[in-house]
Structure formats: C-alpha cells, structure tokens
C-alpha cells in the first residue's frame, strides 16, 4: 500500500469528524430557522402588525412572513449550490452560517409596529428572506460534507449526521421559548421573545470555529483536482437531471410535516384550545426528543435492507398517524396529545434521516450540491412554508381541524408515490453504487486509462501509440 493511501482507521476518523462538524453546524442553522416559526406562532402577529387586525388574521400574516423564508430557500440553493459545486463545500458552508447568524440577531433587535409602523413587518420579511437564502444553501452542503467523507458504502448512514441537526436545533429553540414562557405576558412580549434570537450570535461563533477547521470533502477535492467543475451547475442539473429534481422534491413533503406539528399546532392549541404556552411547548419538546432518538434508525434501516421496503415501512404508517395526531391534540389532554404527537413523529423522522443520503446518491459529484439543494428547496418553497398558512386557512374557513388532518395525509401519499419512483431510477440496493456514482467511477476510470495511454505514447519505443486492441475504453471495460 502506498504511504499516501489513507488507512481504514484514518478514513473512519475523518468521516466522524466531518459528521460531527456537519451535525453541529446544522443544529445552529436550524435553531436559527426554527425559532422564527415558534415566535411567529406566539408573538409576531401581535407585535409586528396593526392591533386593528383580528387575532386569526394577524397570526395568518405572521405565518406568511414565515413562508417568505421558504420562498427564498430555492434562491439560496441555486446560489450556494453553484458556489459549492465550483469552489467547494467547506467555503460555502462558512458563508451560509455567517449570513444566518447576522439575520437572526437582526430579528432579535427589530423595533415593533408600535415603534416604526409598516417598516417593522417590511424589515422582518427582509431578514427572514436572508435566513431563507442561508438555510437554502446550508442543507445540501452539510449533507454532502458528511456523506462524501464517509467510508465506502456508508454515505446514507453518515448523511444522517447532518439530518440530526434539525431535531436538535428545533429542540433547542423550543426549550428556549419553554423557559421564557414562564415570564409574565407583558415582559415576554416586550423583550423575552428576543433572547433566543440574540443567543444565536454566540452559537454562530462556536459553529464558525468548528467549520473553519473542517476539511473539504474527498469527492469535491477530486472534482477540483481533475478540473471537472461545471461552469453553470444549475443549467446542467435542469438540462440532464430535471426529472430527478422533480421526483426528489415530490418525495420530500413528508419531511415538511413538522410544520403541522411544531408551528401550526402550537398556534392552534394555545389560541383556539385550552393549552398554556409552556404546556404545549413541553409536548413538542417530548416529540423532538423522540425524533432525535429514532431518526438515525431510518438511515440504518435503509442501509441494511432493500430501500423500497424500508421506505414503505416509514411512509405508509404516516397516512394514518398524522391525521390521528390532530384529534389527539383536540382532546386537550396532555398525555393523549403527547402520545399522539410522538407516534406521528416516529415514521416521518426515520424517513427524514434516510432521504438525504438517497437524494445525494442521485446526482453526479460535480453538480451534486446544486441538484440536491434544488430538489429539497423546491419542496420547501411549495410545501414547507405553505404548510402553516394552508393549515391556518383551512381552520379559519371551516372552524374545524379535519381538513388539516386530510392535508397531512395527502403529504404522506405524495411522498410515497415519488419516493418509489425515485428509487426505481437510482436503485434499491444500499450497498451498490447508484447510477450517478457508477457514472462518476466510469468517467474517472476512463480519464486514468487515457492518461496512461498518453504516457505510453510519450515513452521511448512506443511512438506508434497503443495497440489497436488495447484502447483506453477497452481497458476501462475489461
């Protein structure tokens, strides 16, 4: 073995380091993103809009500002996907982290509608858009840093490190508001809600130190070394892989049902039902702990058995458990609501733990950041940010949660159909290379064979070039 060839132990150590760094970075980014949803449900409708509006309309407008971040996420995916496929994953992730931190602290410092009038919601939307652009570029890069540094055949498993940042960040944001919920309402509305946003500055500083020490992924190093970067990655994605993008986006609605639980349900339970803020935040926190525990097992399951069977086991139960959750919450009984939310959390959490690695396998390395980000953020644009808006609209229209429950089941049904179609194109065997990975390997082998042939031609005594029966392509496929 060449001394320059890393040992299995060195590869495993680097993979763990990349996975942990990916987890910490995404935890901070998702904390910043999720505290906005909690604040939108509890605070923003009352302090950033005119008090002449009804409570339901003000809450709906607050959820519309939440959606603005999702509308911006595809833009972030395109911008940072381009940079990530051109200059590398690491440098791009540093930029997204700093952007997110600045925007989040800025929200914590914003004056209210009573202080500056219409400028308050305008500035709120602007900063939310900056958050959306940042997280739109973050997710794909974090998944790739973890999966591309993984030992051979374990990309899906290691991508789960990045996915763990979502429940961890969500749990941190929920707990921050849980402790502050004990404040008297006037103090909470005046300054208490700002504390979680201002704490982001310290968290981002820690994340930045960790991220600056991170190494570039091996796959991206190979692309840069071979000068195989694409001038316009997004153009290549849309020209050659548009169907994979659409199938990926269609597979992901199940990953967005968290906004039914943690954003819409929080507002509904505390404003329409009889739950106290702290009580329902505690229910959400319990479900998030369950999510953090069970989520990695989705990646483990997909890595062990036929992917199609694994995904069926994770998606089909949600057709029934998500609707049941709303009726459990409607009982206004803590234990029943908590059990209902925890049961609904298990399948979609395991799905979320697995889907990132499956999507990453679908695209070639030199456009992977752009393809992965575009698929995820396209779904976020249409489904993620629109979920609380849709749910609140259905509730306002009918006065009942049944329509919301049906909508949640439809999310699972769409994910089921598109996930099966996606796997049909990329392959069911978790241990075998995907179509895109085979393409990368074939291209690399061809380049190496052509380089060897060029060396043969330049070697004295071989001026006539390679034999006709030993062409570079023959060597690749021998």
From TrEMBL:
It comes from the Bacteria. Residues 452-478 have a biased composition (Basic and acidic residues). This is MHS family MFS transporter. Pfam families: MFS_1 (PF07690). Residues 430-478 are annotated as: Disordered. Keywords: Cell membrane, Membrane, Transmembrane, Transmembrane helix, Transport. It is a multi-pass membrane protein. It comes from Rhodococcus rhodochrous. It is found in: Cell membrane. Its main location: membrane. PROSITE patterns: MFS. One of its GO terms (cellular component) is plasma membrane. SUPFAM superfamilies: MFS general substrate transporter (SSF103473). Residues 440-451 have a biased composition (Acidic residues). Coiled coil: none annotated. GO terms for molecular function: transmembrane transporter activity. Residues 18-427 form the Major facilitator superfamily (MFS) profile domain. The chain crosses the membrane at residues 56-80, 92-113, 119-146, 167-185, 191-212, 241-260, 280-303, 310-329, 335-360, 372-395, 401-423.
């Amino acid at each position: 073995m060449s001394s320059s060839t890393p040992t299995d132990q060195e590869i495993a150590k680097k993979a763990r380091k990349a996975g942990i760094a990916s987890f910490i970075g995404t935890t901070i980014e998702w904390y910043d993103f999720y505290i906005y949803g909690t604040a939108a449900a509890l605070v923003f409708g009352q302090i950033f809009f005119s008090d002449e509006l009804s409570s339901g309309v003000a809450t709906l407008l607050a959820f519309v500002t939440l959606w603005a971040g999702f509308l911006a996420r595809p833009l972030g995916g395109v911008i940072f996907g381009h940079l990530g496929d051109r200059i590398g994953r690491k440098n791009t992730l540093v930029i997204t982290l700093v952007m997110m931190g600045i925007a989040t602290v800025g929200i914590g410092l914003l004056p209210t509608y009573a202080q500056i009038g219409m400028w308050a919601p305008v500035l709120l939307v602007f900063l939310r858009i900056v958050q959306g652009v940042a997280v739109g570029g973050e997710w794909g890069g974090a998944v790739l840093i973890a999966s591309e540094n993984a030992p051979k055949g374990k990309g899906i498993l290691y991508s789960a490190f990045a996915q763990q940042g979502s429940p961890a960040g969500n749990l941190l944001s929920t707990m921050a508001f849980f402790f502050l919920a004990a404040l008297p309402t006037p103090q909470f509305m005046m300054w208490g809600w700002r504390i979680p946003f201002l704490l982001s500055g310290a968290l981002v500083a820690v994340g930045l130190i960790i991220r600056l020490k991170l190494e570039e992924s091996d796959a991206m190093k190979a692309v840069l070394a071979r000068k195989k970067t694409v001038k316009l990655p997004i153009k290549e994605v849309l020209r050659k892989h548009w169907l994979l993008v659409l199938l990926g986006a269609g597979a992901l609605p199940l990953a967005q049902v968290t906004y039914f639980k943690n954003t819409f349900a929080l507002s509904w339970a505390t404003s329409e039902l009889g739950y106290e803020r702290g009580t329902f935040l505690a229910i959400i926190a319990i479900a998030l702990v369950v999510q953090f525990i069970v989520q990695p097992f989705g990646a483990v399951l997909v890595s062990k058995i036929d992917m199609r069977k694994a995904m069926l086991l994770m998606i089909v139960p949600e057709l029934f458990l998500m609707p049941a959750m709303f009726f459990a919450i409607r009982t206004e009984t803590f234990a029943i609501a908590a059990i209902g939310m925890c049961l609904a959390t298990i399948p979609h959490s395991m799905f979320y733990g697995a889907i990132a690695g499956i999507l990453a396998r679908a695209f070639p390395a030199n456009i992977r950041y752009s393809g992965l980000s575009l698929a995820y953020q396209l779904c976020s644009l249409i489904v993620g940010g629109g979920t609380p808006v849709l749910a609140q609209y259905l509730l306002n229209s009918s006065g009942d949660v049944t329509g919301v429950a049906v909508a949640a089941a439809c999310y699972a049904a769409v994910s089921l159909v598109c996930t099966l179609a996606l796997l049909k194109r990329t392959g069911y065997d978790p241990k075998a290379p995907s179509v895109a990975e085979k393409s990368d390997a074939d291209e690399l082998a061809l380049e190496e064979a052509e380089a060897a042939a060029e060396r043969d031609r330049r070697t004295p005594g071989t001026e006539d070039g390679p034999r006709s029966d030993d062409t570079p392509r023959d060597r690749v496929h021998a």
